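Example 3.2
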Amino acid sequence: MNRKEALKVLSVCATGLGVGLPITGFSSQTHKSKHTTLKGNINHAACQWCYDSIPLEQFCEQAKDLGLTGIDLLRPNQWSVAEKYGLTTSMAYPEKSSLTEGFCNLEEHEWLQKSYIDAIPAASDAGLKNIICFSGNRKGQTDEVGLENCAIGLDKLVKQAEKYNITLTMELLNSKVDHKDYLCDNSKWGVALCEKIGSPNFKLLYDIYHMQIMEGDVIATIRKNNKYYGHYHTGGVPGRHEINDSQELNYPAIMKAILETGFDGFVAQEFIPTREDKMESLKEGVLICDV
């Protein structure tokens, strides 16, 4: 299951309580790791959708125990659950969004703008800083037309984000394996959009997994474009599983390079665990990145 598929499931299963729903067969065994002591150089987070077989409250409690300070990709009705456990929603969703129907499509602007206009002040009131957004699929558009359309659709939202001290963050996703036809699939295009918009309240989410697939040269790219990157996601290549020596990326070196740029935002684990004990995989990933 990728994130797009997970979102479809969550949109059907979401409740007003904002808690993750257990999937049939989930073990009730409580994760018993003692609190993990981290070095404090990186703000660690994790993407909730990768652990959606664990009820959200239980996941937040265990994530806090592992030393995380944020949970990524929560909807508005879930923000308070993370806060209850001393965590922030490090990357928020608005109430409605889409990976495929995004800002590069003029016909989607009306409903997208309404969703984000509602979400930006709500996120500010909740003490949050980051809201994710997506280019959507190109649907035959050229890079240039798609970029212009994104800039048009995001213009008034970025102005509102500046007012409320919120950063709108467009994610870079691969269009080779997971998100066919997605427009914002490389750093060059994403940086061009940042430069066109020209606001410190619009940045890119550099997903290391996705960009290793699309462009490689991860460390050099981070060093070159770091001022445009406001958030990072991890994932093992190939397969988007654990980030240990079963895959090709050198995550400690990548984390050191990120720190050298002066980055003080969040690094969120977004790999799909293969172990039965998913929290042990998460703990391993956090420790690998804790440089």
